[in-house]
Amino acid sequence: MSLRDVYISIVSHAQEEMIIENFSHIPKQLSGFNIKLSIIDNTGADLLKQFCRQKEYFYYYDGVTRGFGANHNKCFSQINPHTKDIFIVCNPDIVIHIDQLEGLLKKFVQTPCDIYHVKTYFDKESNYVDNPDKYFPRFFNFAYSLATDKRLHYGSNIHVKHPEWISGAFMVFRPDVYRRLQGFDEDYFMYCEDMDLCYRANSMEMCILYDDEFYIEHETQMQSRTLFSQSMMWHIKSAVKFLVKNRLYQPFIIAK
Q: Model-level pTM?
């Protein structure tokens, strides 16, 4: 029986040490799956290039600095996965334990859904979990969350199965779904491209599934919360684009 190829797309913005630390333990084969790390390098780091060469991972660097979505789109076009393969968009600061990766992959291939996500711990020791009950924000939701780090567009149903959107830090796709969506909108440099992709998926009546049976850990830095930082400027620009593009002109929503 042939193994199913699983491509894990990771983009490095001078994060080579983090990638090596977080993904060196991932095996090349796992219970019916070929695991193929696929690295897009924005900075051309020799350390990362050497790591990929030693591990025989896909590595791509062409001297062009791209945004989040454009980099993952570039990875997808370069590896060109087959219909029965699996394509995973994954942040460098994600930690995946082998048993969890094996379980979620087996669950994904057996489950009729288009985009798949799992429980995300920001801090597993303190049981700090990213709220999965996400709704599309409006203008004042963005403003309120940027000012207070609180989100009125997050609901209280921690057992939600089909949220409106999921975080781009970890998204599992069937390749034909990614092609139908035409990947991420590359006009977003960083932030909100995950919301935008999920908004389009909803409009196409695709199934977005949140599965709390398995988990990942996200060592997020939250740089967009630093006032007047470049990251915050990107976040504000992306928020405006998301609202205007999708005509979400209501002033706010309050999730229950």
A: 0.94
